[in-house]
């Protein structure tokens, strides 16, 4: 278009970028009975498309009708099973995303107006650019925004994103769909704004908290299971604190739950905190690390405790996956704790290491296969010293020690032989340090729990042997756990260095573990 074709007429701009009409009058809303009829008449795919076309193509300007339409969409979506939801979400992401024809036309108008002095001076270019920005927003994003204004709308969108994540992760189902990935990213961005850490309220959970909230605390606990009301009562009792972050759009729904122990020193064993000693393997002579009654009297003495240990941090909503809340989350809890316990000056997590066991067994298998093929590994799995100690402990030969070690770890037979523990301890601690500190993904540590704490400004401080001797702890990480230590005056710098420079704040103890002891095994060691 030439600059003087329509110097003062924006009709073409409006025609190219008319906003999406998310309007559906009440008599056009799909109800459950409509869905059943549509399923029998058209099939699921057709009924879904009919509903979506009604949502997006029916003009309506009344706000009440808009909300009724959004509510009807919620009801329709909820009535679907996961397979049908996958069809709807794929259709929604592909057919009701960006209007590419409108974008193309507006982009052409922008390019022609850039060279027009008149368009620049009278603001027409600015108006076209504004329309172009609007056209680049997927149409379903406007539906999401409308849904967020409804009662329980944010809760619904969290569940919808949870479904998107599930579908993207299912083998053979849309995992390569760029449209669904874009929808997931948009939901991620919107939820990050609506549920920012500044808008979250920090509540202390006590035994007097509402029963339904206490039940949810039990149900959502993903790190250290709460099996009984007695377990829960202990976790909100003396020298224990439970905090929940909540949001006004999710009434009586904890978003993040953090369990904290107030202790005289940084704990290395989780059984000593949760008191779940019946699952300990202390019968083999292990120290379970339980505190004495002198250390933890029944009545709290705030002046006697110096340390807060965060032993369970749970994000309760799958739909919040990947959303960062920053180090402000931990800082707010530190401030709240110091108000109760003025002498607190040490802050640390006691964290699980999910995935370590699987990773280590995969590494062992890779080295075994290399040796079987007569090839030497660039990075030997064991040092000569470790081989010597393991051979002596297992009664194996040097040429088969890797295979023997794999079988011992795979079957958990080592748990019945405490005399093997010293030999295994050095190997497992060093390999765990490699896993947490050296193994990276896009420059960041690959372990999700480690990544969370490091992004929040913690220091990879100490790896603990036999720290979680429960069945779950052994199955996940051979009983190892990690202390990520928080120094309040260093958190901001540590977080910035990790996020921007991929620099991991790490203690000397962990760095020493990372180093392979002098002397490495020959390539024939299996």
What does this structure look like?
The protein has 526 residues and is an alpha+beta fold. The protein has 23 helices and nine strands. The chain has helices at 11-16, 32-41, 44-57, 63-78, 82-95, 100-114, 117-121, 124-135, 139-148, 153-169, 178-194, 211-220, 229-235, 271-274, 328-340, 356-372, 384-394, 401-411, 421-438, 448-455, 471-477, 491-501, 508-514, and strands at residues 201-205, 240-246, 256-263, 307-315, 346-349, 440-441, 444-445, 459-464, 481-486. Helix 2 crosses helix 3 (44-57) and helix 17 runs antiparallel to helix 19.
Highlighted features:
526 residues, alpha+beta, seven-stranded mixed β-sheet, two-stranded antiparallel ribbon, globular, disordered N terminus
Give the terminus-to-terminus CA distance. Answer: 74 Å
The amount of helix comes to 40-55%
**Number of DSSP-assigned strands:** 9
Low-confidence stretches: 1-41, 276-297, 519-526
What global shape is seen? globular
Structural class: alpha+beta
- What Rg do the Cα atoms give? 29 Å
Mean pLDDT figure? 81
The count of helical stretches stands at 23
**Spatial sequence of strands, sheet with the most strands:** 1-2-3-4-5-9-8
Biggest beta sheet attributes: 7 strands, mixed
Beta-strand content bin: 5-15%
Strand and helix map with partners:
Blueprint: H1 11-16, H2 32-41, H3 44-57, H4 63-78, H5 82-95, H6 100-114, H7 117-121, H8 124-135, H9 139-148, H10 153-169, H11 178-194, E1 201-205, H12 211-220, H13 229-235, E2 240-246, E3 256-263, H14 271-274, E4 307-315, H15 328-340, E5 346-349, H16 356-372, H17 384-394, H18 401-411, H19 421-438, E6 440-441, E7 444-445, H20 448-455, E8 459-464, H21 471-477, E9 481-486, H22 491-501, H23 508-514
Parallel strand pairs: 4-5
Antiparallel strand pairs: 1-2, 2-3, 3-4, 5-9, 6-7, 8-9
Helix pairs in contact: 2-3, 3-5, 5-11, 6-8, 9-10, 10-11, 16-18, 17-19, 19-23
């Amino acid at each position: 278009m030439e600059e003087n074709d329509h110097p003062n007429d924006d009709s073409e701009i409006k025609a190219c970028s008319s906003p999406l009409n998310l309007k559906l009058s009440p008599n056009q809303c799909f109800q459950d009975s409509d869905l059943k009829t549509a399923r029998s008449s058209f099939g699921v795919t057709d009924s879904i498309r009919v509903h979506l076309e009604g949502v997006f193509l029916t003009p309506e300007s009344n706000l009440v009708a808009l909300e009724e339409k959004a509510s009807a969409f919620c009801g329709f979506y909820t009535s679907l099973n996961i397979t049908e939801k996958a069809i709807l979400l794929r259709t929604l992401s592909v057919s009701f995303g960006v209007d590419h024809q409108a974008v193309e036309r507006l982009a052409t108008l922008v390019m022609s107006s850039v060279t027009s002095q008149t368009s620049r001076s009278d603001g027409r270019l600015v108006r076209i650019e504004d329309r172009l920005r609007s056209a680049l927003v997927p149409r379903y994003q406007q539906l999401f925004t409308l849904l967020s204004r409804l009662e329980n709308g944010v809760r619904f969108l969290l569940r919808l994103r949870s479904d998107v994540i599930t579908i993207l992760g299912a083998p053979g189902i849309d995992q390569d769909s760029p449209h669904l990935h874009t929808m997931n990213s948009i939901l991620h961005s919107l939820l990050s704004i609506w549920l920012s850490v500044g808008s979250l309220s920090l509540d202390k959970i006590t035994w007097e908290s509402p029963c339904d909230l206490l039940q949810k605390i039990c149900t959502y606990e993903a790190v250290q299971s709460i099996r009984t009301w007695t377990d829960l009562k202990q976790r909100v009792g003396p020298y224990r604190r439970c905090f929940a972050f909540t949001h006004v759009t999710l009434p009586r729904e904890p978003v993040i739950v953090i369990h904290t122990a107030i202790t005289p020193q940084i704990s290395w064993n989780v059984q000593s905190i949760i008191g779940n000693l019946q699952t300990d393997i202390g019968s083999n002579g292990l120290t379970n690390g339980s505190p004495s009654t002198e250390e933890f009297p029944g009545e709290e003495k705030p002046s006697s405790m110096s340390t807060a240990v965060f032993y369970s941090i749970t994000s309760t909503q799958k739909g919040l996956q990947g959303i960062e809340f920053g180090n402000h989350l931990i800082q707010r809890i530190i401030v709240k704790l110091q108000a109760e316990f003025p002498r607190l000056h040490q802050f640390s997590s006691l964290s699980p290491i999910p995935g370590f066991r699987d990773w280590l067994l995969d590494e062992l298998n890779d080295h075994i296969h290399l040796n079987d093929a007569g090839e030497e590994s660039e990075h030997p799995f064991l040092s000569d010293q470790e081989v010597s100690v393991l051979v002596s402990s297992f009664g194996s030969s040097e040429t088969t020690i890797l295979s023997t070690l794999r079988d011992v770890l795979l079957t958990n037979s080592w748990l019945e032989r405490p005399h093997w523990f010293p030999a295994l301890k050095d190997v497992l601690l060093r390999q765990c340090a490699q896993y947490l500190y050296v193994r990276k993904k896009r420059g960041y540590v690959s372990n999700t729990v480690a990544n969370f704490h490091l992004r929040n400004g913690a220091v990879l401080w100490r790896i603990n042997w036999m720290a979680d001797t429960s069945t779950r702890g052994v199955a996940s990480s051979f009983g190892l756990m990690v202390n990520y230590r928080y120094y309040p005056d260093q958190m901001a710098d540590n977080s910035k260095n990790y996020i921007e420079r991929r620099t991991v704040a790490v203690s000397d103890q962990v760095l020493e573990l990372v180093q392979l002891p002098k002397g490495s095994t020959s390539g024939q060691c299996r």
